[in-house]
């Protein structure tokens, strides 16, 4: 029996920590961290995400702002919304829900977000900072996965981690974080030969491809840790149900530890979004303070 890494419980712990620090920021500086979410159209996965996000923000004491735009919104209109949020000193985090309707240029919008408010960690500056080991806002899902892994491994040094999938939002930043934690990292994807054999060498498998129950028991080394990022809606006997990228029933007996779906990585993603909003609010406070010092320098002592 594998140890179950309970994302519901662990995310609740993360949220309590965030809530405590949010209260501190309010008490000491009179600042309420605020997170703005921009949702264009009505993608069903994004709807679930927005609903859960509003609930968790409330629990954390974070102010939450929603901008819902029509599915046929044009680039200029979306840019104007982002620009207004960029300039608003009372907004600390901005998240534009992906995927966007196809008339919109995702890369352009992401690059238009003020990097200081980039709580998704998708801005090119955030991506570059993570890749080069500079402090940055880290994408929420990979950050949540790292917190889950820390429950199982005190030290990830020297572990072989196989990341299945190379998306900008999960696979690539996940690989960067594992590398930062001194893992040996292999990223496998649709063009990889012998995926199963590579996975079987892994101490840690992170599955993030969006293919229902792709990873089977014979892909997994006995005693490996398995993190399942997939959230796939499938029909079983005419009912909609959520399954991961891992065939949980068959893999669970082989693994040392495994995350469930639902109740695994999903809730951690949302908790990390709150964590990033707090981090962004603090950094913005510090940056305002340093600008004040620049514009009002201490009078220099008269010499002589
Ligand atoms: N810019 C951007 N950043 C995102 O991070 C982002 C996005 N766009 N667009 C949509 C996807 C989807 N996503 C989810 C996160 C958590 C759950 C989640 O908490 N799921 C629950 C179950 C949800 C349910 O009740 O059905 C769970 O896994 O237990 C779901 C979906 C983040 N996304």
List keywords for this structure.
alpha/beta, 10 helices, binds 5,10-Methenyltetrahydrofolate, single chain, 2 domains, 16% strand, Rossmann fold, 304 residues, three-stranded parallel sheet, six-stranded parallel sheet
Topology:
Layout lengths: L2 E2 L2 H23 L4 E7 L3 H17 L2 E7 L5 H13 L5 E4 L9 H7 L11 H8 L8 H13 L7 E5 L6 H10 L3 E5 L6 H6 L3 E4 L17 E4 L3 E5 L2 E5 L4 H4 L5 E2 L6 H31 L9
Helix pairs in contact: 1-10, 2-10, 6-7, 6-10
Bound molecules: 5,10-Methenyltetrahydrofolate.
The CATH topology of the largest domain is what?
Rossmann fold
CATH architecture level-2 label of the largest domain: 3-Layer(aba) Sandwich
Alpha-beta classification: alpha/beta
| Main beta sheet | 6 strands, parallel
Quickly count the helices.
Answer: 10
Low-pLDDT runs of 5+ residues are none
- The overall strand count is 11
Instruction: Give the quaternary arrangement of the chains.
Output: single chain
Short description:
The chain is of the alpha/beta class and 304 residues long. It is built from 10 helices and 11 strands. The chain has a 6-stranded parallel sheet with strand order 1-11-8-7-5-6.
